[in-house]
Amino acid sequence: MPTTAQSTHLSNAETLNLTCLTLACAAVLVQTFDGEGEPLIAVLALSGLAFASTYAMIRWLGPTFIKAGLKGRDLSKVNNSHYIPECMGAICAVVFILTLIVFLPFAFFKDIVVATSGGGNRDVVKNVEYVQQGRLLHRFPHNKLASFLSAIISLQSITLLGIGDDLFDIRWRHKFFIPAFASIPLLVIYFIDFGVTSIVLPTFLQPYVGRELFDLGALYYVYMSAFSIFSPNSINILAGINGIEVSQSIVIALLLAFNDALYLLTPYPHPAMDSHLFSLYFLLPFLGVSFALLIHNWYPARAFCGDTYCYFAGMVFVVVSILGHFSKTLILLLVPQIFNFVYSTPQLFGLIPCPRHRLPHFNARTGLLEPSVTKWEEDKQPRPIIEKVLRLLAQFKLLRLKKDKEGRIAETSNFTILNLWLVWRGPMREDRLAMEITAIQAVLGLFGLFVRHRLALLIFREDNLNITTSV
């Protein structure tokens, strides 16, 4: 019988470190009220509090999740007789959403206190024609507040989907399109507040089209809706070993934060500064809760993140990219996820048998991970055209294929980037595989930013990072 082997208590060192972090962040948070709110400093402090809260709650609530049936065994370990709590991503999502709600007064502190008649400008002398009864609410940035609240609604919706999937194991065909419904608040706000549906054409196409901008109209909203479906599901597909879901999400978030910093550290006020500040307000708390989860989910895992974290992480990226107006930049950071999806399509769409789980196979004798396989029976061979494609992929080392004595296909490796990497690199430890895939994510992401801000100038007139204000 599997047993429960999960420490529910924080060590003295952990308690001391988390207490010091909490007190330091709380002190910084209080100091922000002395100025004009300093929302970026406030969100940094709240991110530290989110880390401490998530770290402690994962440890404390683990046994509760196990008692509720949210548990599993780590099949990639020799000693896997004990249960590990699952769905810890729900804790991350809840702490993250509560952090954003608490951050609301800090995000709009200056607007509430300084730019309203009932706040910090009570002593300002105004001409009689400007005097109105009540607060000057027309000065309040309702569009920013609407964007903030729509993002929270979308994240709450996707969190419910993730928790429902962890509880009821929803089938792919039923849950695949649900993120599109969660993105509706974002698309409505985008339509009302921004509404731009034009794309800049490459310079070599402009002479043929006769214009620099091409309006996609409603198709642009279809693109954003499809993107909101892809991003959460792509994180969920690239999974199966300790730490990989969280580590890839952290790398993507760090790259997005680095891209935001490029717009904030310009020698002049950049027109897109507010959009990228908005992005950081979401990414920093996300990094706080994600690092807390990674500590528990990294090899050897003491907690599983579950589907909730994958959907929640993917939707965070959708929120910041759509409302921050840089969805095409995010695409460049999701190259491994795009490749993994395209590579997986033969199994995802039923062209090749797809097992319930395609995670790498654990060899208990060597303690290493090997590519998991799909077995082909003698009377259930692939169709001729599929067989030719499989043999061609095997020739290009994009697949491991074994034949029987009569030359028929006996087994093929499963179509995931994790299995493909094991085909190329050979058997390896689980943590080594996670580190190498995470490193690939980081390298390709940095190259994507280089493409976005440098190589793109080969086919576009300018990069918006170099656009100055008109003032």
Strand-residue proportion: 5-15%
Overall geometry: globular
Distinct helical segment count: 18
Query: How many E strands?
Result: 10
C-alpha termini separation: 71 Å
Can you give the mean pLDDT? Answer: 89
What letter string, H or E per element, gives the SSE order? EHHEEHHHHHHEHEHHHHHHEEEHEEHH
Uncertain residue segments = 118-126, 130-135
Reading side by side through the largest sheet, how are the strands ordered?
1-3-2
What profile does the largest beta sheet have? 3 strands, mixed
- CA radius of gyration is 25 Å
Helix content: 55-70%
Helix/strand class: mainly alpha
Task: Chart the SSEs and their pairings.
Layout: E1 3-4, H1 12-31, H2 39-67, E2 71-72, E3 82-85, H3 89-107, H4 109-114, H5 142-168, H6 172-175, H7 178-182, H8 184-193, E4 198-200, H9 206-209, E5 213-215, H10 218-237, H11 244-264, H12 273-297, H13 306-323, H14 327-333, H15 335-348, E6 361-363, E7 368-370, E8 373-375, H16 384-395, E9 401-403, E10 409-413, H17 417-425, H18 430-453
Parallel strand pairs: 1-3
Antiparallel strand pairs: 2-3, 4-5, 6-7, 8-10, 9-10
Defining traits:
18 helices; 7% strand; 471 residues; 58% helix; mainly alpha
Structure in a nutshell:
With 471 residues, the protein is mostly helical. It has 18 helices and 10 strands.
Kindly describe this structure.
37% of the residues are buried. Helix 10 crosses helix 15 and helix 11 (244-264) runs parallel beside helix 18 (430-453). The chain is mainly alpha-helical. A 3-stranded mixed sheet has the order 1-3-2. Strands 8-10-9 form a 3-stranded antiparallel sheet. A two-stranded antiparallel sheet has the order 4-5. Mean pLDDT is 89; it is low at 118-126 and 130-135. It contains 18 helices and 10 strands. Strand 6 (361-363) and strand 7 (368-370) form a beta hairpin. The termini are far apart. The protein is globular, with a radius of gyration of 25 Å.
